[in-house]
Fold this protein.
Amino acid sequence: MKKLILISILVLVFVPLSSAIAAEQLIFLSTQFNPVSEMQFITEEVLSGFTNETGIKVEFVPVQYADFVNRILAEVKTGKVVTNVIAELHGGFDYLLSENAIEDLSTMPELPERTFLKTFDEYSEIRGVKAYIPWTQATFVVAINKEALEYLPEGLTQDDVLEGNPNWDYEALLRWGENLKEAKGAPMIGLAMAPGGLFHRFLHGYIYPSYTGSQAKDFASQDAMDMWEYLIRLNEYIHPASTTWSNMSEPLLKGEVLIGWDHAARLIQALTTKPDDFVVAPAPLGPKGRGYILVIAGLGMPKDAPNKEDGWKLIEYLTRPSTQALILQGTGFFPIVEEAEKEITEGALKTLSDGVTKQANAPLGIPCLIPSLGAFGGEFGNIYRMAFERIVLKGEDPNKVLPELNERLEEIFEEVDVPLQ
Amino acid sequence: MSLYNKSREDAHPSRDGHLLKRNTNHKAKTLKNYTPYLLCLPAILYLAIFIGYPLIQAFVLAFTKPSVGFTLDNLKSVLTSQGFKEALGNTLLISVIVIPLQIVLALFLSLFVNTRFKGHMFLIYVITIPLALSEITAGLMSYSIFSSMGFLNKLLINLNLIDKPIYFFGYTYKLREFIVIILSELWRATPLVFVILLAGLQSIDKEYIEAAEVDGATWWEKLTKIIIPLLQPSLLSALLLRTTFAFQVFGNIWILVGRDIPVLAGEAYYWQTEIRNANIASAYAIIIAILTIIFAFLYIKTLESSYLES
């Protein structure tokens, strides 16, 4: 009897274990699609299709930026690489390449039936190495309730705003905000300033380059002082509850604001819920150009990754036009293969897609990539937030605040050995 | 063999038997000595793994830096920062306002419910509903009441009392945000105090009150001279619990006002999740723990001394 029980236990424990070992499984480490809903979508809707097609299971492991770099470097340096495929932003690949921790993908087989957008394809080749395969792109745009278009300031037309014409600039936005406040009795421009919101991206990737030509290089320059003076004026027309919003979809849907700037993926809820109510416009122009952030996520492999053949199959599947269109529907991250654009029909996604494309094509664009600062990424964003809090909300003198914060900003770039951008 | 000896031998048939029994007794006694420890072992193990280990890790993180090793820099930079001063001030201010209000409110509610009027059980359920809600849910519910498009503004607009919404949230309306936090905290956490005080009230012997009534004591005299003194252990337990929780207050405030009104636990969370500096976040956590321990110690000392005096 005892023997029988022992055998049963052994069978119960080892049979599933051995079958799990026997079944092929890939580890897919990603800094993208961290929120639970996105994670669930990628696992249940995207990766399940790959498993059904190939029989290869995929363990999707979303991690934070700092943990990602630490883990890959630890795996590569100890020679115990278990991760098969990685998804990370351009800057992360750049950093891993400098540490010689990623595979050169130029020797892998060709990926048929897809044409990568040229800009992204060029970006993915870093210092002569094919560091990653472009996967998705994202950016931040302005969502506008159509009602707001009735209050455009003199000299600014709907076309100017939607096409990103030169007279759609930050001063025009301020005058528009003024009109809206007068008509509605309340500030109608919203920004996601609460913790968890991406307001710091607006500061370092949009308005800073628009006024100074760079994200961090001229942090405390005279141009920056002019920019802060503008922000103090604009703040009168920014909804006061912005400091408590981490996402602009809800305030836009509730009608608390009529103009909201946010990440495309965070605006998608508003656009899909009320597709007829909103239009999407490129960011306004500043004295130095139209600063905007280009988020490029790519797929790659750690140096000496195991089972490269199956890893490549996964990359091939994830970059297919149909998979990219599916990812757009579920997450608001845009495809970067030409063929996928045909799959975006009318509706909210089309509105968003048009806005994103127009921002990229609008004249005088200054595309900015988020600097890859590893563990200091959070502190970098916090410096911009602190500057806003101290100068605009608390009314401190920018001549005192900016040089003080600039010191730490420069230190961060020095510590990670990344040139000031 | 004397009778005495015989009886002793009867009682202890042999010397070996005697030793055996002594051994068994000794073993039983030893086991009995260990029993409390063995009974506590699962709880101790649980605490050691899930509380002790993270606590040690937090200490290590708070007193180290990745490239430096042991350092007091993290604590120094927290203690000298403006953010910490604001967070500490707000945490204390919220505690100083909310805790006494909660105690008074819960005391009168429990006195009212304890009169056992018809339907008092229903009222108990209504009052204790927030106990079943998480901080986040409570925060979201408060937000939907007070936001510019919330229930309160809609009600006031529909009643023609206002024509534009009143803003309760935003950096420029810090005082209003503070009032919303106080109201929300009162609603969310008073039931805990209420339950403790109601239990305390129900354990008070009614004979004392009846005797006072016979002697012609007024309602106020009965409250201040009989009920409150007898309720003191429950009051102090409620105070102890609420004060320790007050230092951890976070979710409700985070949902309602973000970092407009920073509090200690919120700052720890912010440094951990947004800035991703686990060292500074741990320094905050250690400071919260130390403050909580100090307050708990003071309460326990007060509780002990008042117990001894009584």
In short: The CA atoms of residues 75 and 298 of chain B lie 24 Å apart.
